[in-house]
Design goal:
Elements: H1 4-8, H2 12-30, H3 36-47, H4 52-81, H5 83-102, H6 107-120, H7 124-134, H8 137-164, H9 179-182, H10 186-206, H11 224-238, H12 242-269, H13 282-311, H14 313-330, H15 339-372, H16 376-405, H17 416-432, H18 437-451
Helix pairs in contact: 2-5, 2-7, 2-8, 2-10, 3-4, 4-5, 4-6, 4-7, 4-16, 5-6, 5-10, 7-8, 7-16, 8-13, 8-15, 11-16, 12-14, 12-15, 12-16, 12-17, 13-14, 13-15, 14-15, 14-17, 15-18
Amino acid sequence: MVDSDKVKDASKGALIVLFLVTMIDMIGFGIVIPFLTYLVEDLAGSEGVTEVGLWVGLLMTSYSAAQFLFSPFWGSLSDRIGRRPVLMVGLIGNTVFFALFGLSNTLAMALGARFLAGVFNGNIAVARAYIGDVSNPKQLATRMGLIGAAFGLGFTIGPFLGGELSAPALRWETFQNTIFETYPYLLPCVLASVLSTVSLLIAIRNLPESLTPEMRKVDTSRTWKKQMKNMYANSKKMLGEGSIALIIWVAMLFTFGFTIMHAIFILFTGMPTVDGGLGFNEADNGRIFAMIGVTGIITQGFLIGPMTKRFGSRKLLTFAALLTGAGLVLIPYSQPEYAWIHILSVTGLLSIGSGLFQPSSSTLLAQFAKAEGYELGVVMGANESLGAFARILGPISGGIVWVMTSSGTYPWDYHTAFHLCGLLMLCSALLSLKLSDAELIDANNTNSSQEE
């Protein structure tokens, strides 16, 4: 039997494992960004495929699409069999499918490997549910911030590794006449697999189960089909009413607006200065994204705890959405002679805002889930699914708006897509105001009584 007192006082080893799981999930998402287009061009050329852009889009969206479909499944499964085995399965899947993607010799194989990697990387929701299991209300925001910091660190490291380790045979003699010359994008994928394997070994040793047998919701009489149907029914119900639904929709609007920026940011910074852009190159943009990642890590790792104690998660949620929206709207209003000062300032705003938003929304979800009697894994799974759906729609929407308006005249020009980001952030902030402080006090009181 699991010792509930020990579970409530989670070991540092368990928190380190959760940090690694989340970080590796995001490394796997970002590591392909620098070389994905070149991989598709190589495979498409050998297969006589001309729709390179379509296949790049399919590979980019397949990962988030898989997370959208399977995050509720992993969350619900962890409520029944425990968090630990689900997280273990995810790490094993990461090890296999990261390497398989690097070994892809057809477009279909690359698409399948990328989709399956997304399936097994749906366990970020389980990691957050684990945090909710083992944390009291005072610990919750800081520990959710730890997961958020891992999220930001992984997304910072991933693209860097993907770019630096691609085509190693062209840069280092050691890799010539090896498998890495035949498969030029295998090395970064192997590194991701190795990191996942190391995390698995650490998890076997240092990750205790967070749910006692009495806390698990197990019904062996239900078939897998019935379990899936019930899981999605629960998720759909949560999206339709109550405080939990409100928080999930606030987070969805925030993610939607933020991920539009992923598609249009480099389109703007790379534009010639005569057209209103900044004329940045790949290295310039890499430095900017590194700064965004580092600022996010500092915010989620060190600032979220003290700020939550001072202002509360609900107020931080609204403030974070407004701050991020301001940063996004101001991005295209830069002058070339002040480009670096301006761009670092506004991306600093959006990075701090995003760093405050993610752990605050997760904290509120955990508090209300416990207060309203929902299974925490299902709640976090539904939240991750809608977030993944927003990550699918955001870049596509941003690209469409950019194509339609970038060559027009103000305000319907390259500023428009950034204005859309700000509008979605404003909607997120306004919607968060519907969550009353009275409801939050009731939830906190309920959680405190449960802890006692």
